[in-house]
Amino acid sequence: MQQIVDDIAAQMASKSDKGAVASYIPQLACVDPNQFAISVALPDGSLYSAGCSETLFSIQSISKVFTLTLALGKLGERVWTRVGREPSGDPFNSIVQLEHEHGKPRNPFVNAGAIAIADAILHGHQPKETLAEILRFMRFMANDESITIDEKVARSELETGDRNASLAHFMASFGHFENSVDAVLGTYFHHCSIAMNTIQLATSGLFLANDGINPTTGYRVVSSNRAKRINSLMLMCGHYDGSGEFAFRVGLPGKSGVGGGILAVAPGKASIAVWSPGLDPIGNSKLGTQALELLVKRTGWSVFGK
Amino acid sequence: MQQIVDDIAAQMASKSDKGAVASYIPQLACVDPNQFAISVALPDGSLYSAGCSETLFSIQSISKVFTLTLALGKLGERVWTRVGREPSGDPFNSIVQLEHEHGKPRNPFVNAGAIAIADAILHGHQPKETLAEILRFMRFMANDESITIDEKVARSELETGDRNASLAHFMASFGHFENSVDAVLGTYFHHCSIAMNTIQLATSGLFLANDGINPTTGYRVVSSNRAKRINSLMLMCGHYDGSGEFAFRVGLPGKSGVGGGILAVAPGKASIAVWSPGLDPIGNSKLGTQALELLVKRTGWSVFGK
Amino acid sequence: MQQIVDDIAAQMASKSDKGAVASYIPQLACVDPNQFAISVALPDGSLYSAGCSETLFSIQSISKVFTLTLALGKLGERVWTRVGREPSGDPFNSIVQLEHEHGKPRNPFVNAGAIAIADAILHGHQPKETLAEILRFMRFMANDESITIDEKVARSELETGDRNASLAHFMASFGHFENSVDAVLGTYFHHCSIAMNTIQLATSGLFLANDGINPTTGYRVVSSNRAKRINSLMLMCGHYDGSGEFAFRVGLPGKSGVGGGILAVAPGKASIAVWSPGLDPIGNSKLGTQALELLVKRTGWSVFGK
Amino acid sequence: MQQIVDDIAAQMASKSDKGAVASYIPQLACVDPNQFAISVALPDGSLYSAGCSETLFSIQSISKVFTLTLALGKLGERVWTRVGREPSGDPFNSIVQLEHEHGKPRNPFVNAGAIAIADAILHGHQPKETLAEILRFMRFMANDESITIDEKVARSELETGDRNASLAHFMASFGHFENSVDAVLGTYFHHCSIAMNTIQLATSGLFLANDGINPTTGYRVVSSNRAKRINSLMLMCGHYDGSGEFAFRVGLPGKSGVGGGILAVAPGKASIAVWSPGLDPIGNSKLGTQALELLVKRTGWSVFGK
User: Fold this and answer.
1) Which is more confident, C160 or D145?
2) How much is the CA Rg of chain D, to the nearest whole Å?
3) What angle do CA A73, A77, A81 make, to 5 degrees?
4) Which catalysed reactions does the entry list for this protein (chains A, B, C, D) (predicted)?
5) Closest by Cβ to B236, choosing from A90, A243, A267
6) Taking a C-beta distance cutoff of 8 angstroms, is the pair B221, B214 a contact?
């Protein structure tokens, strides 16, 4: 496995087209695009990394996997009154579907859906408390107490977050929100601004590869049934209107973030985190996707066959 | 396994709500809704069935899996100039997406996509020749020379096929068609009217569970890579705007037909065909979906974990 | 008035950018773009023309004004169960609105709406009979027995009419049609292929400028109330998604055709026909619109003030 | 004329179905629905009123006519870089069109368009200054210094204005705004909360009926050309997706407000204000529309003929 990840990192280093760094959040725009990291965590506790796997990056939308997990723990199946579980066929920030479906987002991974999830887990608490809870959860999942929120990124998002504010006010106009739009957006922007490296991220995702149990701690995070369902949502909707392409090329449940990270799950086999800040036109990490494609080719881990 | 399929058939027989038989194709509307069949074909050649697994039914949209397979064999990757590979988020017969995307269907499994595939495999030939080729392919896949087209159903579809005619003319108006709309629709309606039973269908799908090789004949139908990709498309788009729900509940690549059949694939493990004519509101077999849900629970075959 | 129309014709002759002749109907594409005609018919029976006002052209969608008039005569207010009377905000051949509104077109002047009107006036008759009736009506309106259908154009439209066929089949799929799609499309394509010159067209529109009475014959075509309503529909919807622009610049009820003609009505004052085959990007006659703008500036005929 | 307005008021008093008072702005919901007023102002300075024509009501969206007039005065034709001038075919608060057209509203009378106009007239100033300017303009137009903003209504709108906030943030996300979303919304909600009676409103609209000149003051408000264009926009877009219906039934340029007022213009003849708080399902005053329909029938003022 170490050989495989080293080969992949070497191949990625030689690529000339690394995609374009996200520009719409100013704080993300200044990241060096020539970075690449991969970490593969196995259920037996072993971990294989290559590239700058200790460099922190903004996990952005990957955090949606964990806030969904928290929301499922708190609300159970009532989560599905707030968001659907179908792919949207639309970009991550589309509002058209919201108008056609009375303010209910298609799934928890488009921005509107994750904002609705943020409202659900706030549930009348202060954003500060809820963010502390999210952070505790991430630290526990990653088995690493050092994880924090990058306040500069959070502020940068708040200042430029008109599209997300539009989505939030739109849902609020249907009376769907329990909390103020400001509290919800504050929570959302902050959990998107959690900084992690690929080692922490791959470790955090292990419970999804291991039937709901985090093998490093032995702790059951979710039921085995729920782990499968989160995986199914990641496969169906984890890459927005590029989800079909990712399933086609990689064949693993995965969730991308605009910071260039991707968390992928090979059920029963591995949790994988890759990071490279350059994005493809849809907004998913260009080299990250290519690295996962290679990894699956080498390991035969596609859920769709060898 | 025989025990499992028998149990499932028994449970399904006891259900009171069996959904509503499709009414928009008159010939399908007169099927008895109290029927259920399941067949599980394993790569080792063994086959387990329960219910009326020898009763023929109209495979309808399940045929799209096989016409896509044929088209990939003929055109290779050029197929993707004709159809995309993303879920559409829309019903099977929606035309909105076509207008927004200049007449290119989102994927080969929505009606518009399958009609475009029919145009691609016609490629200037007579519909009769192309249909003969499709039938030969189905007989070879099922290892059963008795498979035919139900002409009554085909005629019924032609007479009531205004929505599909609308989709076809719409695409033709962009200059996307090589053949006349009539030839394309004739081909499409006829391949949807192939009649099969669950035994034949489960056998036909085995190549998708077996890395592209049909184990009953030993013949390689498609490359292992292509088998994975067809599976990914089935998972992402095989149940129209109910694909997310099917992935969430069943967790297998699958393709439904409005005749009440579903072909599902457990990669490396099994090809499964179920049939029950009653449909849920989205147009997928109600008991068929429930039966697959039970099967996966008993076998742990979900691609998303145990 | 003769001075005004002569001036306008002279100004139009000097324009270098005359727009592009419609290319999607092959028979229309071979018309010489350097032609211009204007005719102004007054309620007192006087007529002022300039340019090639005796040259026949394909009236195309202008015919929709007259089929709507016929349909109102036959069905009365029941016409509004078949089509709405709101602007669509969409191009003339859009199908999106039809899907969102269950197959009922927004107004009688978008293609779908006029096709629905053709179905309504067919009402079980043969297309040949209905077309004969439409022709009789046009000849009576224009007070000219020579008006006919250009069969070459009609055939050209039939052969290239996939978009309209798509719209027709779409509506038929909702069960909205009384007649076969072929009969409806045949009727529609033929009435769009009526050939007229600006003199005939301006004369035909006089009843709309004269409270429903054709002053050349003294015959009441429609009630004064209905004349106003047809005028309102022409203003709101007569130029598709360019209707706002036409109202803004010209300020008269008008109906354009892709053949380059426009019929405009100055209520109480005049019926005006202009023709120049070059179109603007939305599909309305470029010089025709400019000529009307000039005419209104010179005459103060805008319905919105001097 | 006094006889006509008295008759209309009497007829309206006898109607049993007066529509439903707008409920989404709490402060508007408590208005007594059994009120009706009409005022007709003629260019010669005479004024005819009936009903409670001195009762103040919230002019709401009618204010958009005056902010557009101001914006045209400040920016001239550059206004059209901010908003289009086509009917939208969508409800007043739709966001779908905004996404499809990159954040540019279809016209200045849908909410998004009027919010964009508020941004344009703010142009870096404080909302307080701009609102003072709007008020001065309204007082001058109405020739009445007593006109003010109803602060309770403005606050009520701010508190429940999520849908408008969504529209504003959406446009801001395209970088279209010069001012902060809060300043723009504050301005917008306040100018919508101006309280006027039908006498003041009819007087204010006279310049549109009189080629741009306010006859009570002799002051030219806009060029005659611009007056026509504002009238054309009112006719095409003044009643949202009920504009076609209003043109069909009434046949005058008009602008409705959710407070139950309508300002209508008979070019060259009269400026008319009606008020009755009950709305039809689209959000336009039910009795107000009926009263205008009667008035036009009695006076022959329709722009579409007698």
Assistant:
1) D145
2) 18
3) 120
4) L-glutamine + H2O = L-glutamate + NH4(+)
5) A243
6) yes
pLDDT in tens, C159-190: 889 999 999 999 999 998 999 999 999 999 99
The DSSP-derived string for D18-71 is --EE--SSHHHHTS-SS--EEEEE-TTS-EEEEESTT--EE-GGGHHHHHHHHH
Task: Pinpoint the alpha helices (H) of A238-285.
Answer: 243-249
- Asked if pLDDT for residue D100 goes beyond 90, the answer is no
d(CA B135, CA B183): 17
CATH number, domain of D130, equals 3.40.710.10
Rounded Cα–Cα distance for residues D230 and D296 (Å): 20
Tens of pLDDT, residue by residue over C117-139, are 999 999 989 999 999 999 999 99
Domain assignment present for C305: no
Q: Could you tell me which chains touch chain B, where touching means 3 or more CB pairs under 8 A? A: A, C
On whether both B16 and B161 belong to a single domain, the answer is no
Residues D183 and D283 in one domain: no
User: Looking at this protein, which amino acid is placed at residue B248?
Assistant: F
- Minimum-distance CB partner of C170 among B95, B173, B181: B95
Contact yes or no for C265/C271 (Cβ under 8 A): yes
CB atoms within 10 A of CB D134: 21
CA end-to-end span of chain B, whole Å?
A: 17
C-alpha distance from residue C92 to each of A122, C58, C113, C151, C163 (Å): 48, 17, 10, 23, 11
Is A240 a catalytic site residue?
Answer: yes
Q: At what angle do helices C63-75 and C127-142 cross, to 10 degrees?
A: 110
How many separate domains does chain C show? Answer: 2
Q: Please, which residues bridge with residue A271 across strands? A: A41, A265
Q: Are D166 and A163 a contacting pair at CB < 8 A?
A: no
Q: Are B93 and B60 in contact (CB under 8 A)?
A: no
How far is it, in rounded angstroms, from Cα A223 to Cα B125? 54
User: Is C61 assigned a catalytic role?
Assistant: yes
Same domain for C281 and C233: yes
Q: Which residue, of C136, C159, C193, is where some domain finishes? A: C193
Which residues lie closer than 8 Å to B10 by C-beta, 6 or more apart? none
A174 and A233 assigned to the same domain: no
Note whether D23 and D113 are same-domain residues.
no
In the listed set A194, A224, A257, which residue is the last one of a domain according to the structure? A194
Q: Looking at the structure, do residues A186 and A74 belong to the same domain, yes or no?
A: yes
User: The domain containing residue D88 runs over which residues?
Assistant: 61-193
Is C111 annotated in some ligand binding site? Answer: yes
Q: Which residues of C touch D209 (CB under 8 A)?
A: 305
A238 and A267 within one domain: yes
Q: Can B188 be counted among the known catalytic residues?
A: yes
* pLDDT for B205 beyond 80: yes
The verdict on whether B48 is a catalytic residue reads: no
Q: Which long-range contacts (CB under 8 A, 24 or more apart) does D33-36 make?
A: D33/D276, D33/D277, D33/D278, D35/D275, D35/D276, D35/D277, D36/D9, D36/D12, D36/D274, D36/D275, D36/D276, D36/D287, D36/D291
Residues from chain C that touch B94, judged by Cβ atoms under 8 A, are: 99
One domain for residues C157 and C247:
no
Q: Which class for B260: exposed (0-12), middle (13-18), buried (19 or more C-beta within 10 A)?
A: buried
The amino acid sitting at C76 is G
Distance from CA of B89 to the nearest CA of A (A): 5
- Give the closest-approach CA distance of D143 to chain A in angstroms: 38
Closest CA–CA distance from residue A31 to any residue of chain B (Å): 30
Q: Say if D306 falls within a structural domain.
A: no
Dist CA C221 CA D18 (whole Å): 36
Residues 6+ apart with CB under 8 A from C127: C183, C186, C187, C190
C40 pLDDT above the threshold of 80 = yes
Any domain includes D304? no
> Is-contact A115 A181, C-beta < 8 A?
no
A73 in a structural domain: yes
Non-local (6+) Cβ contacts of C106 within 8 A are C83, C84, C86, C87, C88, C90, C97, C113, C237, D89
